[in-house]
Amino acid sequence: MDFSSSSSGSSSSGSQPSPEVFMDQLKSQLAQAYAEEFLETVRGKCFSKCITKPGTSLSGGESSCVSRCVDRYIEATGIVSRALFSQTR
């Protein structure tokens, strides 16, 4: 991870970013990594489950299946996240 630059303009080059800048950068990078992992997982799982004959467009059944699959994955991710965050407090 590269924490050498800051969005809030840290002073001299080569100096360590302030703890606030560091945490903001870390949160941003974690959010991006989470989003990428989420999309890759949903894409892989829902595609393999719902798309039986890949073509140029989705059938109505495939579209409904993908929508339900993504909804279930979002719901499950939320449940896991809430459980993890409730244990850390």
Account of the protein in words:
The protein is mostly helical. It has one domain: Helix Hairpins, CATH 1.10.287.810. It is about 70% helix and about 0% strand. The protein has two helices and no strands. It has helices spanning about 20-50, 60-89. The chain is elongated and about 55 Å long. The model is unreliable at about 1-10 (pLDDT under 50). One of its GO terms (biological process) is protein insertion into mitochondrial inner membrane. It comes from Papaver somniferum.
CATH topology heading: Helix Hairpins
Please write the CATH class name.
Mainly Alpha
Number of helices: 2
What is the total tally of β strands? Answer: 0
Domain module tally:
1
Largest sheet: none
Pfam families: zf-Tim10_DDP (PF02953)
Protein name: Mitochondrial import inner membrane translocase subunit
Domain Tim10-like: 25-84
GO molecular function: metal ion binding
